[in-house]
Structure formats: C-alpha cells, structure tokens
Amino acid sequence: MKLTTVFLQTCINLGSDQRKTRIANAYFSLFMAVGNVLGFATGSYSGCISAAQELPLSSSSRSVISEDERPEPSHNAEEAFLWELFGTFRYLSWPVWIILIVTALTWIGWFPFLLFDTDWMGREIYKGKPNEGQNYHIGVRMGALGLMLNSIVLGLTSVVLEKLCRKWGSGLVWGTSNVLMSLGLITMLIISLVVKNMHFHNGDLPPYGVVIAALAVFAVLGVPLSVTYSIPYAMVSTRIESLGLGQGLSMGVLNLAIVIPQVLVSLGSGPWDQLFGGGNSPSFAVGAVAAFTSGLVAILALSRTYTPKPRPLV
C-alpha cells in the first residue's frame, strides 16, 4: 500500500493537467488491483497461510538513544499544517465543493460494502454464524473470492479509464459509475431477500445460482471502485491547482471528504442494522441511496470538460 501511494504521488508531480493526473491515478488503481488480487486469492483458499516464529530482540541489541539526542516534536509545524488544511476551505470554489460533496456521498455508499462484504456472504447468503458450523467460514472465503474478482475487474477498468474520460468526460463517467454502484448494492439487497425466503437444511449450502449471482455483483462493482480510486483525485487536484493552494493540500481536503463519511458509517451502521433486525441489508440500503444521489449530482453538476485557468504571475 505504501509503495502504491508513493507511486501515485510521484506520478501526480509529473504534471498538473487533468489528463496526466487521471493517468497517474489509473496506474495507482492498477497497482492496487494487483496487490488485492494476490491478497484476496490467499484469503479465498483455506489452509494456505503459514506463520514464522519471530525471535524477540535482546535488550543489548537495541539502539539506545539518550534524551539529549532525541529530536523534539515540532508542534508548530503540526499546528501550521492543520491551520492551513482547514483554512483552505475559505478559498475553495463551488466546483471543488461539488467534488467534495460527491466524494462524501460516494464513500457513504462504498463503506458499508467494504466493511461488511465478506460478512454479508457468510451471514446472509450462506446463513451461517461465526461460532456455529462451517457455513459462515465457507461464505467468508467465497466473499474473498468475490473480492479477488472485484480487484481483477478494477485493474482492467483502470487501463481503459482514460479513454472513457476523454470520450464522455470525467463528470459523466464518475456519475454513471456511481449509479452502477447503486444498482449493484440494490442487487445485493434483492439476493438477500431471495435467500431469506429459502429454507436450507442444517449444514446445507446455498444453490450455485445464488452464489454465482453474488460473485457477479462483487465483480461488477470493481468498475465503479476503479473510478472512485482515480477520477476524484484527478478532478480536485486540477481544480485546486488553479487556486495556487498546492497538491498536498488538495489531497488533504479530499481525504477529509473520505474519512469523515467513513467514521459516520462505522459509528452508525451497527445501531442502524440492529434497528431493522440485524443483518447488513439496512446499511447497504443507505449506501445504495447515497451512491445514486452522488451519481445524479456528478452527472448534473460536474461539467464534461474542464480547462484550468492559468495562475496569475506574482
């Protein structure tokens, strides 16, 4: 993950125009997909993980640093950074605010899926419980297989994403992908409803058709996930570039629009699901509404093309 993040920042520094930034983020999605495929492939197969015993370091081998040699923390630098980060909001233009709003709604849609995807497969598709029988664990492994398929589609989409943006425009591609994400979450709700009305005998597995449908939804959701990893960063960086605020601050502002919704979903999804009898479907329903809303806002409010204004020479 650190390697792909460094790769992303390096590519962004190569150019400030939207096309180059989109290409850089597309490569970021591709490299992330490669790592995810390997990780989820391991998780989908039982009995393939081995552990090596780690030898603790002795006290004599540890490097000891005296109190005088330790660098003092730079509180002023941290305070200055936070002040600059939150002070940036005063200079943001309306198109940047639209991007932040769409980003926040997008992650309200994504985070229930990313948080409960394998649990949904084990609990609602295989009707298992974590501490009872093998159905839940088999479902979790099948969920990991679905995430591997998701990552494969993510990587393939990232290769053609630049061509789609040049043809349709970034705003239309982003909005359409979010509508597709909403349809995917709605399909998961429909599958959950169908399985709920099925009667499994004790220890039986769900029909192959249900499992294939669930895996297909996982795979299709790789398309909008690739867009989510690429286009928002490219759009916000090019629009903030013309304001002269710097790429670092633009990434920090966009990350706030990602982290805050994730915190809200993490805190509220549990009580929200319990309010409707448990399961993951209530959170997926909220995610579907948020994704569809963000898609409409992106299609209607974000222009198809954008040419950044030149910065004034001082």
Helix segment tally: 10
Terminal-residue CA separation: 39 Å
**What's the overall average pLDDT, rounded?**
77
Helix content: over 70%
Q: Determine and state the CATH class.
A: Mainly Alpha
* DSSP E strands, number: 0
Globally, the shape reads globular
Supply the helix-strand structural class: mainly alpha
Count of discrete structural domains: 1
Radius of gyration from CA coordinates? 22 Å
**How much of the polypeptide forms β-strand, as a percent range?**
under 5%
Oligomer: single chain
CATH evolutionary superfamily: MFS general substrate transporter like domains
Pathway: Glycan biosynthesis; sucrose metabolism
Protein name: Sucrose transport protein SUC4-like
Subcellular location: Membrane
GO molecular function, one term: symporter activity
